[in-house]
Amino acid sequence: MSPKKAAPSDSRLVLENLRIATPEGRVLLENGNFTMAAGELLLLIGPSGGGKSTIVNVLSGLLGSEGAAWQIRGSLTLNEKYYDLADDVCDAGGLVFQDNALFDDLTAAQNLAIVMDHAGSPTPELARLIESLLRDVDPNQSVASLSGGQRQRVAIARTVLARRPILLFDEPNSGLDPHAAQRLAELIKELCIKMGTPAMIVAHHYDDLLEMADRVLILDPVQRTLHQTPPERETIAARLNAIGAVAEERAQDEIPGVPSRAWEKRLRERPPILWFFHYLWEYFWVLTASPLTIAYVLGGAAIVSFVTMWFGFNYDMLGDYMRSFVHDDALLGVGFIIMTIAVPLIGCILIVARNNAIITADIGNRLYSAQFRAMHNLHIPGRKYLNTAIVLNMVVGSLLLILLSSGVATWFALQTWRLIFPGQPFELWREHFFRLFVMRPDIFWENAGWVVLKTVISTFLASLVAIHSGMGRKNSVIDINNAIARSIVYGTSVTLLVHASIAVLQF
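C-alpha cells predicted for ABC-type lipoprotein export system, ATPase component:
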C-alpha cells in the first residue's frame, strides 16, 4: 500500500500508538508515541532485550525483512506522508548498523559510490560535509584494513549519502572510550543541524551522549511503553533503576527456578581428552555421517556406475551381435574400472570438494571471531583438538564412504546391466563382473590396497590444505570466502594428482 497524504505537522515525524509483538506473540511495546523535529537528536535507551533495536528496524523498514511475521500496529506521519504501519512498510530511516555492515569487497570510495549511483549525487554542501568526515581515509583503501573509527565514519557517510529523511544509529558508541563516544555524539549532532535531519541513537551506555541529545526516550519493557524525559543523568538513572527493580521482581516470579543441583555436575573436572572426543564426534557428523553427506557421495557413485556400465556396452557400432560376443570380457573390464578407478576417484573428489569448504569455513570463522586466541589464553589446546579430529575424520570417514560407494555402485551396475541385457540371469552378471577378483584373490587384495592408498593419501593431503587455508590471516568475511575457494581448488587438484600418480603405479 502506498503512503497517503496527511495534514502537515510542525514535526518531521510523528509516530502514534505503536504496538510491536514478536512472531511468537510477546508484546514489546503497547502504546508508543513520540515525535522528531528537523535537526533534533533523540536518544532511545532502556534495558537490554527490551526492543530498542526493533523500533529502529520499524523506522528503517527492516523489521520482518528476513521472513519473520512480526505484528505491527500504529501510524506514522512523515512530513506530508502517512503510513498505516499495519499495512505499510516505512523505510524512511537510513540506518548505521552496530557492526557498520560495510561491503568488504569494495574500497572505501566504492562503498559510497554504490549508494550515490542509486540515490543520486550529493549537493555541494553535503559533499563538503562528507569530505570533512573522511579527511583521514584513503578512498582507495579496502574497508577491511581501516581502523574501527574510520570504518564507522565510512558507514555514517554511506548512510548520509542515501539522503533518507531520518538518520538512525544502532549502538554506535559500543566499544568506544568516553572521549571517542562524546566526539561521535558531536559529529552526529553536527550532521543533524547541517542537514536539517532528525536522528535517533539507540544506546545502552548513554552517559557520553546525553550532552548532545535534545530529548531522551526510555523504553519501559515492564509497562511496555515509551517515557519521554529530559537528558538529565539523575532523572534517567532513577527511571531505569525503577524499571529494573520491577523487571527483576517479575522475572523471579515468572521464570521457573533452576534446580539446585543443575550446575553441580557441570562444575566438576573431567579428563581433558574428552574434549578431543567431543570435537571428533562433531566433525564425524559434519564431514561423514550426516544424511546429506552420505546421499551426496553415494549419489555420485550411482551416477558414475550407471554411466560407465551404460556407455561401456553401447560404445560399439557393430550392433547387438558384437555386443553379445564381447559381453563377458567387457563386463569384467567395466567392473574392474568401476571398483578400482572410477568410484574411488569420483568419491574422493566429491568428499574433498565438500569437506574442504566446510573445514576452511569453520576454521576461518573460528579464527576471525578470535576463538583460537581465547583457547590459547585459557590454555586449551584447541588447534590440536580440531586439527587432529579433522584429519582423522577426513581419512577414516572417506574410507567408510568409499566402501559404501562401492556397494552402491555395484548395485547400480547390476540394474544398468539388466536394462541393457533384459532377461539374463543374475548369476551371469555376478560371474563376470567379479571374475578377476574371484579367480585371483591376490589381485583383489592388491587393488584394494591401491584404492585404500589413493584414498588415504589424497584425503590426508586435502585435509592439510583445508586446515592451512582456514588458518591464514582473516581480516574480513571476504578473506574467508577466498580461502574457501582456494581450499576447494587446491584440494581437488591434489586429489586428482594423487589418483593419477598412483594409477600409473597401479597399472
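The chain has two domains: 4-92+164-251, 273-506.
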